[in-house]
Amino acid sequence: MMERVGLDHAGRPRASTCRRRGLTLAVTMLALMLVACLLGAAATAGAAAAAKPGKPIAKAPKGSITVATPTFSWGKVKTATKYEVRIYQGSKQLIKKTGVTKTSWKTTKALPKGVNLTWKVRASNASGAGAWSASLAFKVALSSAKAITAFSFQGLAPPVVGAVDEGAHTIALYVPLGTDVTQLVATYTTTGASVAVGATPQVSGATANDFTSPVTYTVTAADATTQTYVVTVIVGASPAKAITAFSFQGLAPPVIGAVTEGTHTVALTVPFGTDVTHLVATFTTTGASVRVGSTVQVSGTTANDFTNPVTYTVTAADTSTQAYVVTVTVAANPAKAITAFSFQGLDPAVIGAVDQDAHTIALVVPFETNVTHLVATFTTTGASVKVGSTVQVSGTTANDFTNPVTYTVTAADATTQTYVVTVTSTLQIGDAYGGGIVAYIYQSGDPGYVAGETHGLIVATGDSSTLGIQWYNGSNISTGATGMVLGTGAANTDAIITAQGAVATSYAAGLARAYNGGGHSDWYLPSKAELHQAYLNKTAIGGSWDARYYWTSSELSPVSAYLEDFTNGHQSTDVKSDQQGVRAFRSF
């Protein structure tokens, strides 16, 4: 559709229409310029992203430095992923380090001292390496150290050690009377680069000098600075009279004394048990001689009794003296073991098994023992024993052993050791219990077994018949006593007595029920399986089994029942009228 243009009365386009057309054209041109700018910026950004990184600014080191392995640092460069550092001495490249990901790097190779060095750094990324930074000049300064740290005349006998006063830069030595000081050779150590006396270079342990008058030693540092030391040699008696070290090297390990020069005392602590009545001291002294009383002391040779403090008197070469009081302390006993532990109040007494490696003590007390108030009798190498905060007295203090109890032994030296005491109450085959002897304890899968509980069989302490007795009461009848397995003996016995009449001692089941060991009335003739367990455990049960064959309560027929040969454990049957042995059982 064509735009309609308004005309004035002369047929020309109206002014308002022209203005609208001009405005539309201006807006269109502005939009085109904005698009062009955006496209240009995007192109510039893309080009920048793909460009190599710029030039970094090197920061340090520069100028004079003292460290030969300095850290080099520079400014971070945008888009850089790695940096390369190069170090030069003149035009010679000393170090080239690539792949540095941070803006600092420390060289591990020592740089030469006292020479002019330069370094530079450049950045790189996936597009390549950028421009090098401006080079920084630096120099590792030479050392200014120039001290004499030790000075002596090792050629004298004994060697004479000088006293170096670093504050005054002087060295004093006392040599014996008669010493020729005109040709003495000094042995020394120095932090400097060289030492000279006048214009003569000095070699430690080699160069001789005339010490008739004080001699000036000049030490030159690596940086060419100097320091003088005035060495004065005094011929005559030295006033030195110190004990500088004191130990007992004969002990294992050796014991080193603490020498306090201010109070002129020496203190040593020796291990517990050390015999201090004959200890040999090894010592060093600046004096001419050492005595204890009137006895001359030879280091590493002379023994003394250190039960009480001992006074060592050091005499200087000038005859002045200094006393040192040596005190030896014997360390407290570190022993802290429990060596024996028992419950003597039980009958019989129960002796604990002490495991010194695991620091545990185990005791097994009789079944159903009241463990809530047991009194332990123990021996210990320690000074005291506690349970919690309660001091334990052997044979007196009671404790509840329902759960493991921890005994803490404290040694004389205050160190401690714990022992965990565990008490178990277990019934075992062969234990006297319930009026007889435990013959068998039910195991998982047995009739009558209850997890977490202890149940089993008890046998009488002896046979109920000495000559044997018949199984029946005179009549061959079926009693219904057919139980063969564990736990059926009591029911079998009840069935036999019901069938054969009131309890009577004229037949096996009645005789067994009549037994009242321990005041119990529930004794019975064992089943086939129950009697066999007694045979299997007869050694642990102990006592005597007088008969060869023993009746069981297990019936085969109206005329026969099972028995067992206790010489070989063989089970068979026999007619009920035969005379065989009887051993009463009960269950628990």
Category from helices, strands and their pairing: mainly beta
Poorly predicted runs: 1-5, 15-29, 34-49
- Binned, the helix content reads 10-25%
Work out the number of β strands.
49
Q: What's the shape?
A: elongated
Number of helices: 5
Q: Name the average pLDDT.
A: 92
Strand fraction band?
Answer: 35-45%
Q: Cα-atom Rg, whole angstroms? A: 54 Å
Question: How far is the first residue's CA from the last residue's CA?
Answer: 118 Å
Largest sheet: 6 strands, mixed
Domain tally: 5
What does this structure look like?
It is built from five helices and 49 strands. 26% of the residues are buried. Strands 2, 4, 5, 7, 8 and 9 form a six-stranded mixed sheet that branches. A six-stranded mixed sheet has the order 12-13-20-19-16-17, with no helix packed on it. A six-stranded mixed sheet has the order 23-24-31-30-27-28, with no helix packed on it. It is elongated, with a radius of gyration of 54 Å. Helices cover 11% and strands 38% of the residues. The chain is mainly beta. It folds into five domains: 58-140, Immunoglobulin-like (Sandwich), CATH 2.60.40.10; 148-235, Immunoglobulin-like (Sandwich); 243-330, Immunoglobulin-like (Sandwich); 338-425, Sandwich (Immunoglobulin-like); 432-587, no CATH class.
Summarize the structure.
The chain has 588 residues and is mainly beta. The protein folds into five domains: 83 residues, Immunoglobulins (Immunoglobulin-like, Sandwich), CATH 2.60.40.10; 88 residues, Immunoglobulin-like (Sandwich), CATH 2.60.40.2340; 88 residues, Immunoglobulin-like; 88 residues, Sandwich (Immunoglobulin-like), CATH 2.60.40; 156 residues, no CATH class. The protein is 11% helix and 38% strand.
